[in-house]
């Protein structure tokens, strides 16, 4: 990895994370890292740093031969991509927190990093203060990774926690999250699952070596979860969480998705509340391990950026060993999911798509069923996202083909129940 070097940083963005990093760096002189220039859009805005630190000219950073590290913490994924690629081509190491930009361009960025012989690190892009990427990259290198389950979005987890613990409805919980700064004024990316899906793309690359995009992934947010769903979960001593999940199937391929789930009270993720994130990794030799920490905020995210900066002193790079192995893992569409579906009208539910129905409850305003449906059916159709329908995964939700015939024997008769 080479000897330790002094880092001269050019930073793009001085929002929550950028300012947090500026403060943290001032408190860690042992790092031998200093910010030389910060590029921002609005130079007239008052900031808690000397005026001479700032510029609106990106080339002041990208083409300064003294600057050897670019830290990119802006919200614009198009501009972020241009910054990161230009920096790598100019022989600078890069630290980024932009999950959307990274998830949309990861294969080409890895190629560019290799061609430039530089490092591109992005621990802060997923789970903020939890060092999950580095652990997946290093600790689980040759271990047989059975599964990974994660809560990766603090905003949605905060909203769901308030719905459960303070019995707020979805709109009330969202408003509170916005007032406390855990959700944006336009919360679409969080509550509809896009933010979490972008992070999940990155974690799949490091856990299984899989290249994918959110366009090819089954995911949803939490906007359809209602009070009936919450009451049912509580009556079963469960909570509802937005969970990213991947599991290696018996055929060697990987099942992966991101959907709301009922979580049992003996599951580690049950205890991940408010803006916290949690990751449970199960592997062949290390058994189960649980990572827990703040998934958002100035200092938690800045701490992840800081750890990447510290690693650059020794020339650290992600090696993507799982991605580069002779037969990298593949995503599978050939499995089934155990789901709970609540709805207002049965006419909106494609009953014949289900392999089996194990529970059915009819109510005046809403009804629900629990059953098993092919993953591909959910991926091919959007009925479960519309008409005020709510779809939530059950615990032990992945069903492999070999188990389906047994479930069909125990299924409630679709014809006999007029459902």
How would you explain this protein's 3D organization?
With 419 residues, this protein is α/β, with parallel strands linked by helices. Among the domains are: 7-125, Rossmann fold; 336-410, Alpha-Beta Plaits, CATH 3.30.70. It has helices at residues 16-26, 59-62, 77-89, 99-116, 132-138, 154-165, 170-179, 188-191, 194-207, 227-235, 298-312, 321-324, 375-380, 401-410; strands spanning 7-12, 33-39, 54-55, 69-72, 93-96, 120-121, 145-151, 238-248, 254-264, 276-283, 287-294, 336-343, 356-361, 367-374, 390-399. The strands form three sheets. Strands 3-2-1-4-5-6 form a six-stranded parallel sheet, sandwiched between helices. The protein has a five-stranded antiparallel sheet with strand order 9-8-7-10-11.
Distance between the termini: 63 Å
Structural class of the secondary elements? Answer: alpha/beta
Largest sheet: 6 strands, parallel
Number of helices: 14
- The CATH architecture of the domain at 7-125 can be given as 3-Layer(aba) Sandwich
């Amino acid at each position: 990895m080479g000897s330790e070097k002094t880092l001269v940083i050019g930073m793009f963005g001085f929002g929550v994370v950028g300012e947090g990093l500026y403060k943290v760096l001032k408190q860690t002189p042992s790092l031998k890292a200093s910010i030389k220039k910060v590029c921002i859009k609005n130079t007239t805005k008052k900031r808690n740093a000397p005026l001479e630190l700032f510029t609106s000219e990106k080339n002041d950073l990208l083409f300064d031969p003294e600057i050897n590290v670019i830290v990119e913490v802006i919200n614009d994924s198009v501009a972020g991509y241009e910054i990161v690629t230009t920096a790598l081509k100019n022989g600078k190491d890069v630290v980024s927190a932009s999950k959307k930009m990274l998830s949309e361009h990861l294969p080409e960025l890895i190629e560019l990093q290799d061609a430039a012989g530089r490092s591109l690190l992005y621990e802060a892009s997923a789970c903020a203060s939890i060092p999950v990427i580095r652990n997946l990259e290093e600790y689980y290198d040759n271990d047989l990774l059975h599964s990974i389950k994660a809560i990766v979005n603090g905003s949605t987890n905060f909203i769901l926690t308030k719905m459960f613990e303070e019995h707020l409805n979805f709109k009330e919980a969202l408003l509170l999250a916005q007032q406390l700064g855990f959700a944006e004024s336009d919360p679409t990316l969080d509550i509809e699952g896009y933010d979490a899906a972008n992070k999940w793309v990155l974690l799949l690359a490091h856990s299984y070596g899989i290249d994918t995009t959110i366009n090819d992934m089954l995911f949803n947010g939490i906007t359809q979860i209602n009070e009936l769903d919450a009451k049912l979960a509580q009556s079963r001593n469960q909570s509802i969480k937005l969970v990213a999940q991947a599991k290696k199937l018996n055929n060697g391929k990987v099942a992966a998705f991101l959907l709301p789930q009922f979580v049992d009270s003996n599951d580690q993720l049950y205890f991940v509340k408010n803006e916290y994130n949690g990751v449970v990794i199960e592997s062949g030799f290390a058994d189960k391990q649980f990572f827990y920490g703040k998934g958002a905020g100035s200092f938690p995210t800045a701490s992840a950026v800081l750890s990447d900066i510290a690693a650059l002193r020794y020339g650290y790079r992600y090696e993507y060993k799982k991605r580069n192995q002779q037969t990298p893992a593949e995503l599978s569409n050939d499995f089934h999911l155990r789901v709970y579906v609540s709805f207002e009208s049965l006419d909106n539910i494609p009953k014949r798509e289900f392999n089996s129905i194990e529970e059915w409850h009819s109510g005046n305003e809403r009804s629900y069923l629990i059953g098993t449906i092919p993953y591909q059916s959910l991926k091919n159709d959007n009925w479960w996202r519309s008409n005020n329908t709510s779809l939530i995964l059950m615990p032990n939700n992945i069903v492999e083909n070999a188990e389906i015939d047994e479930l069909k024997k125990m299924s409630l008769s679709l014809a006999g129940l007029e459902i």
